[in-house]
Design goal:
Layout lengths: L6 E12 L3 H7 L5 H4 L5 E9 L3 E5 L6 H8 L5 E10 L2 E2 L5 H7 L1 E4 L6 E5 H13 L5 H14 L10 E2 L5 H15 L3 E5 L7 H17 L4 E6 L3 H6 L3 E6 L2 E6 L1 H10 L6
Parallel strand pairs: 3-10, 3-11, 6-9, 9-10
Antiparallel strand pairs: 1-2, 1-4, 4-5, 7-8, 11-12
Helix pairs in contact: 5-7, 7-8
């Protein structure tokens, strides 16, 4: 944890709801309730501050707004901010589009990464990193940069030549996203249920990658969005927050995650 407490990222009283039709919103936000998807706010006054170098975990039951939060923070057009503000490195980014947020150093690892047929992992990384750094990187330069991380994450060297997420196992998708995070070098990483669908060995590999990236980039902030304590046990975040009904209702250290494991979410409703 960064003792200087330099603010990296702040959410102030954030309210957000789906921007789509009722049926489309219901499909795209499957974990939220019908009434929420129909147009009511899903996030209802959420506030959070992440300082440089800190890792924060956000835990909540289905329908609490976790996936909506992740999508809203990356500027997804499927959601609209109805009130509140989002700040990143001192700038008000509430109205910034997704690509501008990504170029500024925000990264989102999706719960369900999208397949992109015809675009290889190495091509995707080249385009993303070139946009992020403002320079035109060669495939060879990027291939050399990815080799060490593929080794750390237990990935075969041919992995980067496969089409992005096409035919990937759940573990491969999640390790690929951690490799992207390592290569793109964001200032803030938002990991949306990165542990979803992973067995214990894959979870430990992914968690090890997160720890090593944080070690390499000690000023990077991390927001872990998850259902379960097992990822937290591996990563050991600085702060744990409980999200219920679109608001953070409790914050603390790892002892809060232990209480949640013992008492369940009902204790926080």
């Amino acid at each position: 944890m960064n003792t200087a407490a330099t603010e990296l990222f702040r959410i102030e009283d954030l309210h957000a709801r789906p921007a789509l039709t009722e049926s489309a919103a219901n499909e795209s936000a499957a974990n939220e309730s019908f009434a929420q998807a129909a147009g009511d706010d899903i996030l209802r006054g959420l506030s959070l501050t992440v300082n440089a170098g800190e890792a924060h975990a956000i835990m909540g039951p289905n329908g609490s707004g976790k996936s909506t939060l992740a999508s809203t923070l990356l500027g997804s057009p499927e959601y609209v901010v109805t009130s509140g503000r989002v700040f990143f490195q001192g700038d008000d980014i509430t109205d910034w589009p997704t690509d501008v947020r990504a170029k500024a150093g925000m990264f989102l690892a999706f719960q369900y990464p999208q397949e992109i047929p015809g675009v290889s992992v190495i091509q995707f990384l080249r385009q993303a990193l070139s946009a992020r750094k403002g320079i035109d990187l060669s495939v060879l330069e990027l291939r050399l940069a990815t080799m060490e991380w593929m080794k750390r994450l237990g990935m075969d060297s041919s992995f980067v030549d496969r089409y992005l997420n096409e035919g990937f196992s759940g573990g491969e998708k999640k390790r690929n996203e951690i490799m992207q995070m390592a290569v793109l070098q964001p200032e803030l990483a938002i990991l949306d249920e990165t542990d979803s669908g992973l067995d214990i060995d894959a979870l430990r590999t992914v968690a090890k990658g997160i720890r090593e990236i944080r070690s390499d980039r000690p000023q990077m902030g991390v927001v872990l969005i998850t259902h379960y304590q097992r990822l937290l046990d591996e990563v050991q975040p600085d702060r744990v927050h409980i999200l219920v009904g679109g608001r953070i209702v409790a914050s603390g250290g790892m002892e809060l995650a232990a209480q949640l494991e013992r008492d369940g979410y009902e204790a926080f409703r």
